[in-house]
Amino acid sequence: MTKLEDHIPEKRIFPKGDVNRYVSCWTEKDVLGGEVVDALVVILRTSGCSWARKKGCTMCGYFNDCHPDADGENILHQFRKAMEKSNGQTMLKVFTSGSFLDEREIPRETRAGILDMASERFKQVIVETRPQYVSEESLKESVAQVAGLQVALGLESANDMVLKHSINKGFTYEDYLKATKIIRRSGATVKTYLLLKPPFLTENEAITDAVNTASQIKDITDVISLNPVNVQKGTLVERLWRRGEYRPPWLWSVVRIIEECQDLDPRIISSPTGGGKRRGAHNCHECDEDVLKGIAEYSLGQRNDFGDLECECRERWMDTLDLQGFTQSSIDIQRYYG
Ligand code: SF4
Ligand SMILES: [Zn+2]
Prior knowledge:
The protein has 338 residues and is α/β, with parallel strands linked by helices. The chain is 36% helix and 16% strand.
């Protein structure tokens, strides 16, 4: 029997881009302590995710932004460059295309250098990592440097079947739980990313999975961020999408999940990457902008419901929920039947 990983394309990391240049850096809005603040986002070009080298997750194309030769010096240089864009933002999100706490990706002294620079400028610093790199030692050192440290974990789903057979995540819900305990004991806070619509799930199953996961982790995490899949280059999801066997999630599904989780504390936030585009979460394209705006406003605490949003495509979305349940398949029905 073939395994899921047999179908995941190899993720070869080619030298791409300037090894001394970060991937991207921008300022966006976020919420801290109930207030809307500016957050500087920096994506560093590193040698990449250790898991991606073993084929990695079915939807992940971050390996496209890596450079095999990126060492600690290069990464520090990139970060210094990015700091030229810091001008009073309250929050810093520093992402790699892998794990900030993996010392093969970011050497310990580089990590310390980055956190040292960040601690002088920002109240909260968010870094992302796979659970296996969370240790008492790394957390103790990091929290000593940055009091407002938040560690983000891409759990995606609390269902081990989904993690294994749909995402090929390479860790279990239990691994996530262990990491959150270490993070909390260290004094840092936890942010959890959920994935909306991993491959092979119907739209309805994906909604249910996200809602179940959110309610399962509500007492464990400080922030829940919903990431709808966007179709990234060189991934299994892209192969399925090209064959009409995958459609990125509807924005109505994001709205439905938020509505179903409205009473949860923490509330779900979402900022769909590539939202409104063919490869990202979208509706009919006519209403995408309004719905994305609504989701952004909700995430910033500026609206509490979506009652004012309507579009004729909502009916089509509801048909999809019914039809995919009937066919028990996640194929993109509308691509075949219009
Ligand atoms: S999603 Fe995260 S853990 Fe999975 S391959 Fe990509 S970077 Fe690695
Ligand atoms: Zn529409």
